[in-house]
Amino acid sequence: MLKTHDVSLRFGKRILFEDVTTKFSPGNCYGIIGANGAGKSTLLKVLSGEIDPTSGNVSVSPGKRIAVLKQDQYEFDEFVVRETVLMGHKKLFKIMAEKDAIYAKSDFSNEDGMKVSDLEDEFAELNGWEAESEVSTLLSGLGVADELHEKKMSELSGNEKVKVLLAQALFGNPDILLLDEPTNHLDIQSIDWLEEFLITFKNTVIVISHDRHFLNNVCTHIADIDYGKVAVYTGNYDFWLESSQLALQQTKDKNKKTEAKRKELEAFVARFSANASKS
């Protein structure tokens, strides 16, 4: 579970968030919405730990792993596509690199044998034996052709890089998945595949998207950023929209009734004052 407690964020005199306390639970997909400049992407950066809040704190349940969709298309240009996806699970990737380095030794010692045995145990616990096939499944599902899997990222087009970075975020069954505009540059087939992936995903997803149809299909909750506060509602985007419009109409109706009562009271006071003057 991911929680915020009294989180505030200020840039100079500008207050972006003020005393935000909320939680994001497993099994749910939260769509982050708000006006341009409300701080949607910044909120994801606070949740991921990339940006520290001015006050308050963000907490993650012990042992839970957060995966974030990277936005820099050039960050992994020197790496092969397959490796780039594997790097989405830092611990597993490190274990794989350490194993390969030991097995490559020409003077393999008893100490190396004990070390690699421990690494193999950790590798198995992290489902490492399925890693390569999972990478292929994710890349293929997102429309990255098989012949590109062993090419360097620098050889790919911008759209292809975006798909690889998305596969990287999805890789290894993260406990908490943070996605900022994941459908950008995706074709219809890839979007359909991603929707199905997220619908069946068992852990926590927090997503920003301008695609209302996408939010309707994948979200179980909507987190609305408004005037520095974050309010979480149950339901998809359309449900939130209908509910908010109904609440707005009810507020307007209440204000009209209040105004009518005010005018009625003013008229009564005027009549009373007129009668008092005559007497």
UniProtKB/TrEMBL annotation:
- Does the record carry ATP-binding as a key word? yes
GO function terms (MF aspect): ATP binding; ATP hydrolysis activity
Q: Which residues form a coiled coil?
A: 241-268
A Pfam family per the record: ABC_tran
Stored InterPro entries? AAA+_ATPase, ABC_tran_Xtn, ABC_transporter-like_ATP-bd, ABCF_ATPase, P-loop_NTPase
Which keywords label this protein? ATP-binding, Coiled coil, Nucleotide-binding
Q: CDD domains in the record, alphabetically?
A: ABCF_EF-3
What residue stretches are annotated with the ABC transporter domain? 2-252
Return the PANTHER family for the record.
ABC TRANSPORTER ATP-BINDING SUBUNIT (PTHR42855), DRUG RESISTANCE ABC TRANSPORTER,ATP-BINDING PROTEIN (PTHR42855:SF2)
Its name, as the record gives it, is: ATP-binding protein, ABC transporter
Gene name tied to this protein = oleB_2
